Amino acid sequence: MTETISCQRLQAAYQRSRAELLSFRNNAGHWTGELSTSALSTATAIMALEMIRRKRPADDTSLDCYIQNGIRWLAEHQNTDGGWGDTVKSFSNISTTMLCHAAFHATKSTEKYVAHVVNARQYIDRIGGVEAVVARYGKDKTFSVPILTHCALAGLVKWETIPALPFELACLPARFYKTVRLPVVSYALPALIAIGQVRHHFRKPRNPITRLIRNLAVKRSLKKLISIQPTNGGFLEAAPLTSFVTMSLAGMGLTDHPVVQKGLQFLLDSVRPDGSWPIDTNLATWTTTLSVNALEGTLPEFEKTPIRQWLLQQQYKELHPYTSAEPGGWAWTDLPGGVPDGDDTPGAILALLNLQPEEPDAQQADDLQSALRNGVNWLLDLQNRNGGWPTFCRGWGALPFDQSAADISAHVIRALQAWLKTESQSEETDLRLRAERAVRRGFQYLATVQRADGSWLPLWFGNQHIDNDENPVYGTARVLAAYARGAERDSNQAEQGILFLKSVQNLDGGWGGASGAPSSVEETALAVDTLLMLDIEAPAVTEGLNWLLKRVEAGTYTETTPIGFYFAKLWYFEQLYPIVFTVSALHRAETVLKKSADDNLRLSLEEEDYRIMSVKEK
After folding, report:
1. Any bridge partners for residue 25, and if so which?
2. Residue 109 has pLDDT above 90, yes or no
3. What is the rounded CA–CA span in Å between residue 85 and residue 92?
4. Separation CA 199–CA 116 (nearest Å)
5. pLDDT 10s digits, 401-420
6. Distance (Å, rounded) from C-alpha 180 to C-alpha 488?
7. What is the pLDDT of residues 553-599, one digit of tens each?
8. Nearest partner of 423 among 412, 432, 434, 410, judged by Cα
9. Which of 4, 127, 148, 546 has fewest C-beta within 10 Å?
10. What is the pLDDT of residue 614?
């Protein structure tokens, strides 16, 4: 690497990208980021507003501008094939297209946008309509049933074709949810209740016992829904989930229900000036921890302090009302709709370790140590029996977003490894012993889910150019980061993972999600960063670094790619991802280059000393 990339060139690119990242901090000193606008979010928000508008007096036009602006935005961002993708950079898909198409019908906008509606209908027929939606999600009804419900409210799908959701199960204590195997993932409890009820409202079950049970469960489950709604009305801070709940209750005529009123306010508060809605409000905690960890402790103390204090404030101190998660975890956002999870918690632990004050006072040291130990304990309690970690709830396991995931598990392992290095070893505490055992079990899990080609698949990231929307480059890079320390570095799993990353590098030197996928800043930076972390010196690293440096020098390294998966494989891109990943890779490259130069200098000095000693001996 040192033969083809000069120190000056690398430092210039690093300083440029670092300054760009730091410029995105808000007035409080941390990062907020910006999530992509979503056609799916916009379509569902329009439907929720329309369901409320229908129940209001004819002279009440307060929602008209929101609906009209949203419809206009959808029309302006339809793809040439007649469909819509989840983001403005995404390929069309059946789910988002059916939701957008239904929004035009529900709002009686078909005559004004005839060509758009016709083209959308042709796309839907060509892809397969309802059957294609059901096939896309398989046994997981978390998203297929809400999509079909949205279309039913627009009059485009018959209620009898929509599977009934057992909303009565929400009346059970939370500890029983994993036992009864709900047909939706853990985070979708609000949709289970609201969508289950609207389906029941329009199509009662034939079985009289089931009908009676569900009739009796209506009021009780609605009380449950009230109790788990965040103070700002946004379930998970997500416009789609909030919209599905709001449209369902409003479609039943419950427009004055407190859940509907709070949901409506959330949607009105989160609409963007161009009339669209983002996929989520923000990922402030996630983007902040990513940024801090990319900078790896290089911030001065006066800049670390406000971030550290803010991050400590984001740790949950009480039982979470939504998922019943114990205190100790972190969510992706600082807003009330967040939920503590197995990806943001290790990110926060690593960030706090990078934000440690050089000379902490007693109170600072106690606060930091307590937060870290509580976070570690939370992660240990989350670990599944198979040794891996899920996103939200231990032991659910039936559906993908509640199963152990390779990328999340590797992130947890890295956090536990880092904490173990800083935690006092003078006493073999129970927590320390548990963490060491959890790491061993975590690596055993990772070995079982490594694919034959040496790769690992992530849960929360994908690539639209790859079959099944997979992204083995992202997954493998993230997992290999856990193998970079200790004996695992020389394991067969690590070697196979490294060989995979090298094998799928593109001819231009960059990486996409897999072999043949277009190179992106995000995936190239991740691959380079990880290979450097593993101390790999190979042409692949040099070529990848050169690819990245050219993007920084051309100013195109800030271009985003839709690689993020939100809930139910809903695509998004985040403004900060390419910048954060670039900073991390270039910072590591600069560190490696500096170490190499220092080592060469040391060897040179040692050789000179040896020569002098030889002369003296003569």
Report:
1. 31
2. yes
3. 4
4. 29
5. 678 999 999 999 999 999 99
6. 38
7. 999 999 999 999 887 678 999 999 999 999 999 999 999 887 766 55
8. 432
9. 4
10. 43
